[in-house]
Write a structure and sequence with these properties.
Elements: H1 3-25, H2 43-60, H3 68-85
Helix pairs in contact: 1-2, 2-3
């Protein structure tokens, strides 16, 4: 997703995170369980929270089964929040009042599994002899 579709989705995700998720499930921030006040600037957090939000909608929205909320809690909430808030997770180094951008791993510029380059045609041989 990108452009207006991404902005609209991120807006909806932010509303849900700020008005449902964090007021209910946002535990105290510590060095062992960090949270970034600018969580939307961490791509991993956006991806994880987007999945959590989609599961929330699927399991608690209109037409969902009565056991949906319990399934959401059991199958999604803890694993996502624990991963995000892990001391080595995406918010490592962030404080309650400070965002710290993360350095992503360096990736070699080569593609080790790309097909080999097409072989060059053989050089031209000597000119044909004149008769």
């Amino acid at each position: 997703m990108e452009g207006p579709a991404y902005a609209s989705t991120l807006r909806q995700l932010t509303l849900w995170a700020h008005h449902v998720l964090l007021p209910v499930y946002g535990r105290e921030v510590t060095s062992g369980a960090p949270w970034c006040p600018r969580w939307w600037e961490h791509r991993e957090a956006v991806a994880q929270l987007h999945g959590l939000w989609l599961a929330w909608g699927d399991l608690t929205g209109p037409g969902s089964r009565m056991t949906g909320p319990a399934s959401w809690h059991r199958d999604y909430l803890s694993s996502v929040m624990d991963g995000l808030r892990d001391a080595q997770g995406p918010f490592a180094g962030c404080k309650t009042d400070k965002h710290r951008p993360k350095q992503t791993p360096t990736i070699a510029a080569i593609d080790p599994f790309a097909p080999p380059p097409a072989s060059a045609p053989p050089p031209p041989g000597p000119p044909p002899a004149l008769a």
